[in-house]
Amino acid sequence: MAISLSTSLKLFWGWHEGWWTYRAQKVAIRREISEWELSLLDLHFSAAPDRESKALEVTRESVSRLFDILNTEHEELLRQIHPPERVIDAVNQSRQARDTRSALQQPPV
Question: What is the pLDDT of residue 51?
Answer without folding.
Answer: 92
